[in-house]
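Fold these two proteins, one after the other.
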Amino acid sequence: MDTVQKLKAGFSLDLGALKEPLGFIRVLEWVFAIFAFATVGGYSGETHFSVKCETPIANQPTNPMFSYPFRLSAHPYKITACNGSQSNDTFLQGDFSSSAEFYVCVGVFGFLYCTVTLILYLGYQNIYRQTSRGPIIDLVVTAAFAFLWLVSSSAWAKALTDVKWAVNPNQLIQTPGCEGNCEAGESASVGRLNASVIFGFLNLLLWASNCWFIYKETPFHKDPNPPATMEEGGAPEP
């Protein structure tokens, strides 16, 4: 209870921190972290191809589905022949869950860290700058997240390229179940996933650039124009 009371007593809301680069960029990081993991998590897509049949029998459509975390081999589908019979379960090929889950994990933890530091910036600015420990820890964690955004965004960009290849209708019609009698349909809409890669690299840029502004809060940063002293020949104030 004493700790809670001390936190309440030390809280002093100051929105002026949002006008400084330190707070403003942190808000952007918070927003873009949400965009990053939200565009990947919960995604579900569908690709299309069909079995060619002689008229007047209509082509038999097949619509394989896939979704986050892009463990494609977990999504079976059946190919319907012209006589109405269905093949055994056919599976999409590939498992890209590690890259997708790593990317989403970085986004979620980045969002949580931004939330905590924004509370610190806006409500406990005096505590944050009271000692050098707060800015130093903030600098180290922010630099670590910049590195994680680089790794996770690069890995996810490569995985997304592989996902798009694996669910491409032109690729799927070459499966044994089609036996050369299928034609490609519409590809799955992956615009949301393409945007997620962009958000990932935007986060990298934001977190990397924010390191400079946090660095200026640490004792490692030296003031380029220190005030003149009497020993250095500075004029005394009247």
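Now the second one:
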Amino acid sequence: MVSKALMASWAALDVLLLAAGVVSLVLSIVWRAPNILMNMVLSDADLTAGTILGIALLITFVISVTAIIQRNHVTMPLVILNYVLVADAIGVVIIGTFVWFYTLRERANFHDMWRLATRDERISLQDQFRCCGYFNGTDLAEVGGSFCTSLEVIAALPKDELETNFCVKPITGFADSTLNNIFTTVRLSVQRH
């Protein structure tokens, strides 16, 4: 007979596995909504990987419940569960590594995205963060919107990149916070297994 403490521990870890799968799946769906800033931070490939990971974790949850309710002498489902957990852990490590690697060059990566953004998207971000241009007022600043209303307004901004008048700091701040939270969540789900 399996001890009650062991079963309680298994049940708690299994609930966490279920929660990780649900959170991964739900956030991958919710974050697909049109949002200029979130779409810069998370690509469709990232969200698809999150969806696949969420589905894999939910399937693992079902396998784990099936494996544990078998009679004591039937151990093959537990062996299969162990292999599936190892596969999940490898998937989580790979996705977490991609997220972590992207955070190493945020300023350059988002400058490339800023350059590829449409004029309307840049104006929207400039209005949202009350900034003009990416690294400075001459770096792809768009005249228009409610903050960067004219070339004179942009020219009057301080030239120091550390000032909050340029978009690099708020964009990378949002991206850093979002990506670090995703990386931490992914890393914690590996540790639970």
